[in-house]
Records
---
Amino acid sequence: MNFCSQCGEKVRFAIPEGDDRPRYLCESCGAIHYQNPRIVAGTLPVRGDRVLLCKRAISPRKGYWTLPAGYMENAETTREASARETREEAKAEVELGSLYTLIDLPHINQVYMIFLAELKSDYAAGEESLEVALFAEEEIPWQELAFPTIERTLAHFFEDRKQGHFPLHMSTITPEDRERYFGSA
Ligand code: ZN
């Protein structure tokens, strides 16, 4: 952030009085511009023994496979956001189940929330997808998944499926996890 969204003057990045971390401060109008993590809501749509993945048509990670997920909008619930993203990216309707993975990514200020879901309709590539398809476990393109959050969610799912029990998995992705996933290039 360079300029104040309230008055247009230059902002400064510094710790406000009584605070414990730096914020964007406007000395002209006194505004403090707080920034907080963003929630990425999505689903793990299942039909029979297969799961639905979308091939990304947009950056980042264009051409890689992901679960339908995206940034939550104001005024919606996490469940509404995950169903909307599934509708937008996979043109699919789902019956939502329980929250399945909650993954903190503190180094990029995101929180992923992926819900279990049953696929209830046809599906097709939405605006942000090149292709949408169902995959059995042995068909999952593990080397072509878009993000470590997606890999982790799918790994939990196929492991839990052996027991037929799908508890909530809460975890954190660290910069080291991310480097391991993307390589150091
Ligand atoms: Zn200002």
Note: The pocket of zinc ion is lined by residues 4, 6-7, 9, 26, 28-29, 31 (CB under 6 Å).
---
Amino acid sequence: METVKFTELDIKPEILKAVANMGFEAMSPIQAKAIPEVMAGHDVIGQAQTGTGKTAAFGIPLLQKIDPKNRKLQAIILCPTRELAIQVADEIRRLSKFMHGIKILPVYGGQDINRQIKALKGGAQIIIGTPGRVMDHLRRKTIRCEAVNTIVLDEADEMLNMGFREDIETILEYIPEEGRQTVLFSATMPKPILDITKKYQHDAVTIK
Ligand code: AMP
């Protein structure tokens, strides 16, 4: 496959600067396929393992779409573990290094909830969290979804293996369906994953 440079796509200069800063030159295969589709606003099903560059594959289009002037929560990324949530938050922070007014907050179980509530009150446009804790905040109304237009399910198969299916579906129900972009990444595509894609995605594009 021919390599695609990040500069070939209509990506904001601040993001391109960060990408260059991180030492990325060509897009990885999953990025070359996924970034244009996610940037076009499509729902995407991405079959990809870790280490393929999938975080930037959804992170770049996500940052491209965020309105920094709007202080409300606009995107939720769900991850199976605290470690992955921190890792994804770090990568997206690096990608947003030259953007102004973007707040990114990891929210996971095991961390003091009152500290999280305080941080959430400060306003974050992007939350990266584990399903159980995000669910908890939604019930407490310390996370509000009225302005959320993008949800990413990262390592969806792992989240299902860990018993998060009900939480994921409840979280998806909280997010306004009108204008919602739902992006799902998974290493494997067992039936429960396909059921979620059928139930919550519209005209999804599949990428391998
Ligand atoms: P991920 O699969 O998202 O966990 O990414 C794996 C690693 O590859 C991370 O350290 C990324 O920073 C790095 N990476 C992602 N995209 C690229 C790229 N296009 N070129 C070089 N490294 C990359």
Note: The pocket of adenosine monophosphate is lined by residues 24, 27-28, 31, 50-56, 91 (CB under 6 Å).
---
Amino acid sequence: MSIKSGYFKKHLAVDLSAGSCTRVDLEESFLRDYIGGRGFGAKMVWDNLAAHDFKVDPLGPENLLVIAPGPLTGLYLPSSGKCSFISLSPSTGVYGDSSMGGSFGAELRQSGLDVLSITGRAEQLSVLLIDNGENKILPMPELEGKGCLETEGLVKEALGSHEINVATIGPAGENLVRFACVNADWSRNAGRTGIGAVMGSKNLKAVAVRGAKDLPVHDLDGLIAEAEKAYAYMRNHKFFDLWQREGLMNVMEYANAAGILPSYNFKDASFARIGQINGDTMLDSYKIGDSACFSCPMCCGNICLVKQGKYIGTVVEGPEYETCAMLGSNLGIDNFAAVLRAAQACDEYGIDTISAGNLIGAAIEGYEKGILSLKDLDGRPITWGDEEAILDLIRKIAHREGIGDILANGSLQVIETWPEMDKLILQVKGLEQSAYDSRAGASMALAYATSDIGAHHTRAWTIAKEIELGKDWSNEEKVELVIYHQTLRPLFDMLGVCRLPWIELGLNEQHYERFYSSVTGEPATLPELLEKSNRIYDLTRLINTRLGMSRADDTMPYKVHSAPVQTGPTAGQVIDKKDFERLLDLYYQKRGWDSNGIPAAGLEKQYS
Ligand code: SF4
């Protein structure tokens, strides 16, 4: 039976080396099995690797970048603005992806496409224009070195329209900083795994999109009715107002009280001066407006302005929790204006704030412990809370100057250069850790360690549940919790929606089952959708193991096992290494992978 609706059934394949843009019809089996977003991307990356005998340099022209919204992106339903960017990651060398909010994905769908893939390398710095079915690769060398926000404006001006949506890289992407991100809508980011460097390696400064097509929907009345119910449910939730007011900044106080807030490069897990960088401080002195992704009533984005002092005039969309924690408490900064300035710099250079905060924190601690010399730091000392030195280091990373050139290559290169830094850097598979300290809960450590992209919280954010329900969870329960998150969460990226309404406002999984059926006409049940979602987790595991990863890469960094939290509610806690290994054994068993973390022989055939 054919899929009734929900797709244009079109893929635009761009080869920047050949200068070609080819529209390709998508097969129904591909749409049905992989759904969209991360599902499309994982399958296309797998096929590209197979075509190159699994020898692809993440920064080589042969690496494939896939940009994919989902069948729900851009529709009238809650928080439907998500679009996935998928590729081999320059941070880890294996599978990588990152999801962007805003309205770029909605615009891409309105141009009549379900997925865009980009390979090759343009001769000159270029912009890919997708304009209602007309596609062009436009050389724009004049954009070299321009910041993200500036580029967004310049591209719109050059193309003569402010209705065009622009996803762009900054200097960091051009300079192949391995944790460079892609920005759109001012500061919505595909932040993690270095997708900005993949664009830079292709000489692709930006993708500009404009579309005016109606999106295909099987049962529009049914969808509207379901959407109305979901919006009402969200609006009536007890935390709805809090989310509108503070967005993710409300997590600062929660994480501090729970003892999971990174402070001083994860030496500690709470911050004594939290009151200076929390949601109340933002509301009292800095917030001037809200921002939201496409069709999202939560509008978790905060627009902040510094009105006085040395950073006067700094205006930022943000910070959200991760940025405030990693560029604030993790670096010993208690000045909210300085956090805003650092966030603005990262946005303009196009740098992932989580990776930057980790690497700068490690550099400060490395200097404190005598691992890094003054000479290593180019003669400029750096200490906790030293705002100016920290801002200078962000600039040096973006431009690859001095020590910034080593930090720009990410954790693995830093450890290779100074092996003792291995004890200070929080990373898994080369991806620097998100802002939730896993020493408070072993399920979070397992989630980070087994994540296909490295230490990123959105794969399985289990810490809150584990803390909330106490410490006497059995290993069985912890493993099942991690696997459930890893199974469900790809589905949000495949459908093209934000997962926050599910996490924070209790919008249950069945809503998404009904949205999917209304849009596509497919009578899929939630278990069927979850099976497809789980297949993607198996597929990305296969990609990683074919690229050489195994149990030896599902490890947690030194501090998690051997450096107890110093103060606060989790003081003294570490994750016992032997307990962790037992969890990992059980995890592999339940996944059906062998004791080395390798999926069963024969699984590959499912994806051919
Ligand atoms: Fe965007 Fe926040 Fe809404 Fe998610 S909750 S769609 S990140 S505004």
Note: The radius of gyration is 22 Å.
